[in-house]
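**Archive record**
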Amino acid sequence: MSDAPARRIVTVILCGGAGTRLWPLSRQARPKQMLDLLGGGSMLELTAARVADTNLFAPPILVAGAGQADAIEAALPRAGCLILEPEAKNTAPAIALAALAVDADDILLVLPSDQLIGDAAGFREAARRALPFAAQGWIVTFGMKAERAETGYGYIERGAELGDGVHEAARFVEKPDVATAARYVAEGRHDWNGGIFMMRAGTCLDALEAHAPEIAAAARAAMEGARREGRRLLPEAAAFAASPSQSIDYAVMEKADKVALVPVAIGWSDVGSWEALHAVSPRDEAGNALAGDVLALGTRDCLIRSDGPLVAAIGVEDLVVIATADAVLIVPKAHSQRVREAVEALNQAGRGELL
């Protein structure tokens, strides 16, 4: 593999997620990526800090909904362009907009805004290893070490090694059942799909043209009609509305021929549930992760957080208790993925003031 070009990596931070599984703390007006969950800054700020090395990374492009613009600009006043999607269309159209905002030879590193990475230096080292492959036309994805039989993630099977710890991506697998996930972990050939990608902007657009032409056409038309307001770039709404809503995995990654995989062990978590937050949070000797005005007596292995009233928990185990000014969530930790059911029920009941 030849040396990569000196051009810096253009990071693209996708800020459009709602994070409904972290309700009632995460709301439409303050989604998951804007929350400070561990005391070190919001997840968006932590994501931006990982790519702050100006020798390796150019100022990030942020792709978000219009309603998030003020909060993002306040959190990241020195970031680059802010592309405001007229409506949410999943990750493939969002990435297409970013690819059209730069030169075809620019290397894009696409990052979700709402993930935790414990080893930031290891992440940057993996980006350096991926860079020459992306420069030569590979679409590179980063596989997170599968630490348990997780059924909530997609998996990527490693193929032949291309060099420098980089493999061909043999196969993308949708969320498996428990038995299949356990087999993947035991075999050691599958990594979690963390949704982090590196590629030339031109490679991205060519792949969209080949495998998702309606997305590519809608994004081009939207960007041709875009208007700029300071650092904000507003694609033309009617053109963008014509785009199908698809993930980049479905639109491109599962269909493209030249896809590479960089397996990493960098302390990754998508913090996709309250149980996942408990797993990455500091805990006391009884296994409790406590934040805010909380009294825990005879309580074990719980996540209890209050942004409002005192929460007193006595003699309970394996619970999530989240209190805000207007809502309280109580759910067994192992059932925390079901929080979305509460969000759906509130939406159906017309309780939008709680969402």
